[in-house]
């Protein structure tokens, strides 16, 4: 009396086992990647000053919740837009356009200048996002602010990934001027 195993059954068992092992390895790799992304986002937000955090409507104790994806704006953060942790912001030193030059896709007309220094911080991002939403393809405006608007860059990149240009025209100490435009190909 011997047990006879069909070769097709063995092949099926091996295939299912290999598939299960591959799914497990993929899950572990994805978890490690997600943990790296979350750590990078935490480090980037932690590196911001209290003024920069306030500019995006957050306080330092909100960072963990923002990175975990459980952050809900409260009274001190009424103008915050949610940031998807997978749409990690890139450094503001890295312009969306190649080599920081105006893209040929951008309109050659003179950009509108918007000075938000007279607005309270809670109103600034609301106003700027309103202007960004109104931008037509290839158009831009110049933002004038009293500090580096790097947190705004992070929010724009999260909301409109690879759809806008960000070019520093002046970097303080009195004023920061940034040309923000909607790329023609992002329409």
Descriptive notes:
This protein is of the alpha+beta class. The chain has one domain: Translation Initiation Factor IF3 (2-Layer Sandwich). The chain has five helices and four strands, in the order H-H-H-E-H-E-H-E-E. It has a four-stranded mixed sheet, covered by helices on one side. Strand 3 and strand 4 form a beta hairpin. The chain is elongated and about 90 Å long. The chain starts with 6 loop residues before the first helix and ends in a 5-residue tail after the last strand. About 19% of the residues have low confidence.
What would you say about this model in short?
With 187 residues, the protein is α+β, with helices and mostly antiparallel strands. It has five helices and four strands.
Structural features:
alpha+beta, four-stranded mixed sheet, single chain, 5 helices, 187 residues, elongated, Translation Initiation Factor IF3, 41% helix, 4 strands
């Amino acid at each position: 009396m011997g047990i006879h195993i069909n070769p097709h059954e063995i092949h099926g068992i091996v295939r299912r086992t290999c598939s299960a092992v591959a799914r497990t390895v993929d899950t572990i790799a994805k978890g490690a990647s997600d943990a790296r992304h979350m750590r990078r986002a935490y480090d980037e937000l932690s590196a911001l000053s209290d003024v920069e955090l306030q500019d995006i409507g957050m306080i330092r104790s909100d960072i963990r919740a923002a990175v975990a994806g459980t952050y809900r704006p409260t009274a001190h953060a009424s103008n915050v837009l949610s940031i998807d942790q997978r749409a990690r912001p890139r450094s503001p030193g890295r312009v969306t356009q190649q080599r920081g030059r105006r893209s040929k896709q951008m309109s050659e007309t003179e950009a509108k200048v918007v000075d938000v220094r007279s607005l309270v911080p809670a109103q600034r991002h609301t106003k700027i996002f309103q202007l960004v939403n109104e931008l037509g393809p290839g158009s831009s405006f110049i933002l004038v602010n009293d500090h580096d608007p790097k947190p705004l860059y992070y929010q724009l990149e999260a909301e409109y990934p690879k759809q806008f240009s960000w070019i520093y025209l002046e970097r303080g100490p009195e004023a920061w001027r940034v040309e923000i435009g909607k790329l023609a190909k992002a329409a």
